[in-house]
Amino acid sequence: MRNFTIYLALLLCLLASKMLGQETFEKRAKNIASKIETITKEEKAALKIEVEAVNNQLINGTISREAAENKKKALAEARAINIESRVAQEQENLKNLVQEKVDGKIKEQDSIRRYSFSFHKNRDKHNDKDSIQSEKRTTSQFVLAAGLNNLITDGKLEDSDYRFLGSHFYELGITYNSRILKNDNLLHAKYGLSIMYNNLRPTENRSFVINGNQTNLIVNAIDLNDSRFRNVYLVAPVHLEFDFSGKKMKEGKSFFKTHQSFRLGVGGYAGINLKSKQITKYDDTDLKATEKVRGDFNTTNFIYGLSTYIGYKETSLYLKYDLNPLFKDNVVKQNNVSLGLRFDFN
Question: What average pLDDT score do residues 28-52 get?
Fold first, then answer.
């Protein structure tokens, strides 16, 4: 628990110092977000074409309704796996970027904001355009999140079987932010779709072994260089967001902008487990070996939980907790908990 508290303090310090390294960090993060968004759009467009083809088969009577539904479900699952596979490299880039930020490798002198001022005849027109755009009741953001991941066993986090600083989570998603009240900027409904990666690294040279309907953590006969257990989820998060950006005035007219001040979100998520995989690395004579085992590991297929975030502008401290146990039939119930930084890019 002491290590977890230390890392929490580190995250808070990182959040407080965000303005010192904002430009370089955000620019690189937005580039990653743009690439992932392109991947998502391409896969969704391809899925739409495939589903339309199945619908045409159904209309023409060449396929039954049940077969059509099964085929569309299989196509959706295949596209979800494609998205997960294609964003793997961008996920690694995000992991390295966040680690550079934590390690202080993004230097202050590289991130000093430089402003240039110029005056044009059409400046007022440009500002008016910005004001009109800001009046939209619903906007969209790309979400990137990363941080610590662990399991709470019997309501306790102390003496965890998993490395505190070695177990991580990542989240990539698209959200929509809808202002609830017409003339007030405080309350927003935030909803969307995310892919979550939860990684656990067991301590003391251990890995998971399936024994019937039980999934046990055992000590290995050989020395492991690394042992990691990963679960990938497709979830739909929903939050009630309190945005303190307030109301702006221009030429006697009021308009609203989000993500300009402090924000607080409370809500939850629900989704499905796309895959579970265990990765172990060890030395085999003069060779380095890596084993990857994919299966259900008796994990819960449908997940749901609570989540909250608090922050300033695009950056927030993010906490989420699975209400379902990680392993559905294990005698001892263990629930996943994650704490990290979240970035909502308009």
Answer: 82
User: What would the DSSP string read from start to end of 45-90?
Assistant: HHHHHHHHHHHHHHHHTSS-HHHHHHHHHHHHHHHHHHHHHHTHHH
Residue 113 has pLDDT above 70, yes or no: no
pLDDT on residue 201? 96
Rg (CA), the chain: 23
Which of 74-78, 96-100, 218-222 has the highest mean predicted lDDT (pLDDT)? Answer: 218-222
Question: What is the CB neighbour count within 10 angstroms for residue 167?
Answer: 22
Q: How many CB atoms lie within 10 A of CB 243?
A: 22
Nearest CA to 194 out of 261, 271, 266 is that of 271
Give the closest residue to 162 by CA, choosing from 199, 196, 197: 199
pLDDT at 109: 42
DSSP sequence for 189-200: EEEEEEEEEEEE
